[in-house]
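Work through what follows:
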Amino acid sequence: MNEAEEVLRLFSYTEEEQKAFPYLREYMRRVRPELASVLAAPRGRERFMLAGLFLTYRALNHSGDGISTDTSGMSPDSIHARRLEAFRRITGREISDPLKYLRMIRFNPLKLVLFGPARMLYRFVTRG
């Protein structure tokens, strides 16, 4: 499996995730037609991975933990741990805290209000 295939397999939101969070279904519907061009370039793959970590960010934030590529306290079988470890391995970049992650995805509360999470993630992945 090449890197683009691994990124697609691991960072695409599952049917279960999409069913639980309709905005993820909308995001995947929007981004699907552009995946070949997005995954063709390293920067596009990195943006797709960062968008694929959005649910991890929210889940860890909800549980009172911050997102970090240090997964030592997580179950190694967890999808969140697997995604974080793959991000670090593939990009060579670390996420040390939630604010760094939000800067990496260019999060802006105004964008979230104006566009909603699905469109915000789509725009980030396809336009940077």
Residues 69 and 85 are 6 Å apart (CA to CA). The chain has a mean pLDDT of 93. Residues 3-127 form one domain.
